[in-house]
Amino acid sequence: MISYPRWLEDTADTPRLRLIGIGNAGVHIADRIAAQASSELETVAINSDQHSLNTSSAGTRVAIGPLTTHGLGAGGDAETGLEAAKESLKEILGAIEGADILLICAGLGGGTGGPTAALVAKLAKERGALPVAVVTSPFRFEGRRRSAQASEALDELKKHADAVVHFENDRMADFSEPMLEAAKTFAACDELLAAAIITLISATKGGGPLPVSLPDLISILRHSGDGCLFGSGSAEGGERAAAALEEALRSPLLDGGRLLKEGTEILVNIGGPSNIAFVEAASIMQSVSRHVGEKTNLHLTLATTQDDAPLTVALIGRTGAGVARQVPQSAPAVEPLSVVPDQPAKPKPSTPKVHQEDLPLEPVSKGRFIKSEPTMFEGEDLDVPTFIRRKLLR
Ligand SMILES: Nc1nc2c(ncn2[C@@H]2O[C@H](COP(=O)(O)OP(=O)(O)OP(=O)(O)O)[C@@H](O)[C@H]2O)c(=O)[nH]1
Ligand SMILES: [Mg+2]
After folding, report:
1. pTM
2. Which residue's alpha carbon is nearest to atom 4 within ligand 1?
3. Counting atoms of ligand 1 from 1, which one is nearest the CA of 388?
């Protein structure tokens, strides 16, 4: 049985939503979402890395653990990150105060994001708010230590957050071009995450003729820590409904539409111009229902905005335990998706299969991060907080 905060049942007021980015990846993702969202969002950046905070555009920036990390980040050590968060408990409480829904973003595996996200979720829950975590697990090449820290943080988050939307970086990148630059692979993951979160935000804000209630949204996402489905697409013109859905189904997190069969709960969020026709919405739902399994519960929300916006279709939901953990062995086959019967689907170019080996990582001395095992690759320390931003993301 799921229990909801009283304000969800008692008031018709729009709940106060706050987006919280934690750790370098979380702050980066939250900034991207805030920049892309159609309406202004309350944003908070929390980090033990002062440089990352300085570059954030969040409305509120909270530096945690100045005595523990001296503003240099937790160096990939979860214990140090948790210590930093506990040192700044008062500041964290101040940052979550007054929010009804907290969308908590973090990249799991590092020192700060995972442990602090779990702590924020716990504190928020204790204060009657509704924490929803949107997290990624590390790439295989980042090594076992990060992977172990990520799964520990994920378990902890599942204990406290009302819903955990979990994406695997490996899976998101699986369908990108094998020789895509690392920076672009990160950017592709971030794009997907941002689109997923914007979908959630627009669904929670409602406003359209077919809103989904918050309790429904939470129960759709509640156990998506086991496996999350997401895809979004947009299109204009005569065949916009079919084209937008086709693009959505090509998402790596839908495995060319195939994972829909495994979906237990799927929300279809249709957005765009106020002239979306009933027949367009109905045709999208019919098409989706042809791809889902017998036991899948489908939910529809319709959120209309400016007249000149393209029609967008976003599918978000959860699978049964473990399904999204299966890394596909080959490029997905795209089934015919058009809402026009018998129209052939566009063939998807096949992607050569690539085998990703663990990188040979070389241990070195780590100075003040003596407790943490550095992750060296080609002479670069992957735990240096600004590494990913400076070298990969620009
Ligand atoms: N999608 C995405 N993932 C990222 C990005 N940067 C880092 N990550 C992932 O997030 C994990 C955590 O990295 P960070 O966010 O840098 O770590 P942190 O939480 O700041 O922790 P410390 O640096 O140890 O203080 C990494 O292991 C990567 O898997 C990014 O820009 N995009
Ligand atoms: Mg960091």
Report:
1. 0.75
2. 25
3. 6
